[in-house]
Amino acid sequence: MGNAECRQNTGRSCSEDDSPALSFDENFPNYNETTINRGTIVSPKPQLKFHSICGTNIVLLRDGRVAKRRESFCKGLAFSNRPIGIGEIVCIRLCEVGNNWSGVMRFGVTNVDPASFRDIELPKFACPDLTSKGGYWAKSLAERFSVQGLILHFFINDSGEMHYGVNGVHKGLFLSGINVNSPLWTIVDIYGNSVAVEFVGMDFLCF
């Protein structure tokens, strides 16, 4: 049986009170406030949202910018609705973290268009169900960073490396060996104690 497209709800589910004002240190590529989740200065793109193809426990909120797992601890796969650009800074806020389950969010990228799963059942997990196949790169966020309100940000360089940081501070290399010769969609596995995440937009970022 194929995947049903995710339900959408325009209500606001995530409080921003716990999130820091966001700025970036010198380790990140050149950017300005118009490029966060919107491509690069050279190649601007529409605001990142979540793809309508997602795990069976996911519901989309805020016009697709928030993905929330409704129940259980798995079947929480979500993808970006468009490929991300090389050098584009992707910002994801952990807007709801629970304590009913163990394990933390996994994230990464894929060369596989999420639309290819329209008539195919999505697996339960990103790791290892997807990462054991070609064209997928993902792993877990460190458990110490699984904190409500934290902002995760990352970018892919033209050498196929993903660098990441939290709350504006560079943390280093996260993934390597990524194929940058084909389009790349973001993967987020809302797993374990992670409950809801958001692609932040210009109405939230503070510089």
From TrEMBL:
Record's compositionally biased regions (Polar residues): 1-13
Ranges for domain NHR: 47-202
Record keywords: Metal-binding, Repeat, Zinc, Zinc-finger
Pfam entry (one): Neuralized
Record carries keyword NADP: no
Molecular-function GO term, any one: ubiquitin protein ligase activity
Region Disordered, annotated ranges: 1-21
Name of the molecule in the record: NHR domain-containing protein
Species of the source: Meloidogyne enterolobii
